[in-house]
Design a protein that fits this description.
Length: 195
């Protein structure tokens, strides 16, 4: 007898979950379909019962990563300062298996399918919009362009902090970029007049 639809859906989701976690940790080309299937408790032959191609798995895994990120502490911060501090933290740097999919995979998406790039684009646009909404109305200028600058700096800084071998320098990258962004985009207090 064949698997029921519920069992098939459960198996499908297990494969997507493994791929989502492993792609963040190892990159899109860092793990094979065979290894993903093995980790999901299946044979590689069963892959095509669930996906037409590896690209289809990549698209679904990216969507799963971004859906998970949507509810994570990286996204759900109340202020721009807190968003910057949380994103540019050592905890985020070190936690690859649940890290931001944008920072984990940004360098690999240019070589991915159009569908994967569409999913990635949607996540980047949402993140930029979130940051744009956190910029104080007291800050002059184009808030959308400023949000793009902030997000680009954060993604670049977290990537560089992961790539360097020197732990102290890695920490300095995170702290320096966070401090500069916060200073640039914090409303300036007007000097108080003392009679």
């Amino acid at each position: 007898m064949g698997h029921s639809q519920a069992e098939k859906a459960e198996t499908h989701q297990r494969i997507v979950d493994v791929a989502a976690r492993r792609f963040r940790e190892l990159g899109l080309e860092g793990i094979s379909v065979a290894d993903i299937m093995k980790e999901a408790g299946m044979t590689v032959g069963g892959f095509y019962k669930h996906f037409a191609s590896r690209d289809d798995l990549v698209v679904e895994a990216l969507a799963a990563v971004f859906a998970e990120n949507e509810n994570s502490e990286l996204v759900s911060q109340p202020t721009l300062k807190k968003s910057i501090q949380t994103y540019l933290s050592e905890k985020h740097r070190d936690d690859l298996h649940s890290s931001c999919g944008v920072s984990s995979l940004v360098s690999e998406l240019p070589r991915s399918s159009d569908d994967a790039r569409e999913v990635f684009t949607e996540r980047v646009m949402k993140s930029v919009s979130l940051l744009e909404g956190q910029i104080s109305s007291e800050i002059e200028g184009n808030h959308r362009a400023q949000a793009m600058l902030i997000y680009s700096a954060m993604v670049g800084a977290i990537g560089m902090s992961r790539a360097v071998a020197d732990t102290k320098f890695s920490r300095q990258i995170l702290q320096s970029v966070a401090a500069e962004l916060i200073a640039l985009f914090s409303p300036k207090s007007s000097p108080s007049s003392n009679g």
